[in-house]
Amino acid sequence: MVSLGPGFPEYVIPRAKAALDAAQVVAGYRTYLDLIKPFLTHQEILSSGMKAEVKRCQAAIDRARAGQWVALVSSGDAGIYGMAGLVLEICAARGLKVGPPEDNGEVDFHLEMVPGVPALGAAAALLGAPLMHDFAVISLSDLLTPWEMIQKRVELAAAGDLVIVLYNPKSKKRDWQLGAVREILLKVKDPATPVGIVVKARREGQEVTVTTLAEMLMHQVDMQTIVIVGNSQTFTYGPYMITPRGYLSKYQVGEDSSQ
Amino acid sequence: MVSLGPGFPEYVIPRAKAALDAAQVVAGYRTYLDLIKPFLTHQEILSSGMKAEVKRCQAAIDRARAGQWVALVSSGDAGIYGMAGLVLEICAARGLKVGPPEDNGEVDFHLEMVPGVPALGAAAALLGAPLMHDFAVISLSDLLTPWEMIQKRVELAAAGDLVIVLYNPKSKKRDWQLGAVREILLKVKDPATPVGIVVKARREGQEVTVTTLAEMLMHQVDMQTIVIVGNSQTFTYGPYMITPRGYLSKYQVGEDSSQ
């Protein structure tokens, strides 16, 4: 299970690159495979469309059971809203025994989860430092989660003054959720709260915007967008949004060390 | 601002390695600098102890203002409870103008935030797939945050059935917080809820444990430990903990694609 991070090859860890190089088969979502194709040489490629996630994982598992070295790739971090869970769920449902490479017991195949730079981290780095304090990560996709649950989580995160990271803010079929979240947040948060919007981090078409809760809907948002809403302490500074490390002023940042 | 990820060199993105190679000065916490020292050649090294964070950032900023290429390193992702915010806070307090490398305007110096694999991602990968659904990330350090705030956030995260990632669960001086959090969680969560504990992910001394909320205090925990508490759907499977992708059963994982 190989995480590709936000962009290839500069943002992919050597461990992931080595797994791709060693693989006989590389399986993944077509769009992401296209990004790494220039770096694939001998590998057989199993690509599939966006809705074919379960089949893709099943095919990868079948190949691994047959003794092949398989790299199933996932954008960002496969362990954060990625394919890692689905692979394990399918193995569990099939009663397979899998374990990490260092497992010396009898297994149907070895499975290594190679982490990567997650979309939330790539976005945060482009925005400055919004994640210096506690945060909640919430997906606005209501495909597998009831909307009431998503709404409740946004309310609770706001009540706890957590920085809020929103995944999947919008898709072609889901266009009202981000507006609904903004309404919920405006009930308890200052309209001037900084909001960062990062479209396609470290990919072609990247756009980075620091705006406010009041004006956040005036900017382009899509499936590959991360939205980060600040906490009560978050402030802007030049092109950046910054969440301080704490709520107490135990440290002095103003003094000049050269004095 | 260079993120070192969980382990060097296999878990560090090429972009970070390139920044280190290009640097004239590398500044950081002594323990982390020791890990990367074998890979440093020509760079001047500014190392300092754990409590000297502000001074370290100030020294790095002074060097950058003097025109030197400086890599300020941070373990994991510098943008998640790391040094990225402190650097920007100090720049803001001093009235400096900084901007990303692609900024063509007049700045005191250019600043690039290089993301990395965060501790939470490294831990999640070792535990299986605990972060497939919404989660809260909460630090138990009450050095800069009132304990009442931390406690409230844990309560709200539990009320929202978020997976909970705990940073800084324990230090030499703070030894009761994790137990207090467990008590809060036991009020609303099943004692059998899976809990993952990862000590020193991808470093010497790594330990990975999947246990339960009831028994979580029976395992070693330190400053470099990440604790992940599952949501109501999280289950264990062999050595792994898995949080399903949703609350609805819209997808079938049991069928065998080879049939």
Topology (elements, then pairings):
The structure is a homodimer of 259-residue chains.
Chain A: E1 2-3, H1 14-22, E2 25-29, H2 30-36, E3 44-48, H3 53-65, E4 70-74, H4 84-93, E5 98-99, E6 109-110, H5 119-127, E7 128-129, E8 135-139, H6 147-159, E9 163-167, H7 177-186, E10 194-199, E11 207-212, E12 225-229, E13 235-237, E14 240-242
Briefly characterize the structure.
The structure is a homodimer of 259-residue chains. Helices cover 27% and strands 22% of the residues of chain A.
Give the percentage of residues in beta strands of chain A. 15-25%
Identify the biggest protein-protein contact and residues per side: A-B, 97 and 97 residues
Structural class assignment of chain A: alpha/beta
* Rg of chain A: 21 Å
CATH class of the largest domain in chain A: Alpha Beta
- Report helical residue fraction of chain A: 25-40%
Let me know the CATH homologous superfamily of the largest domain in chain A. Answer: Tetrapyrrole methylase, C-terminal domain
General form of chain A: elongated
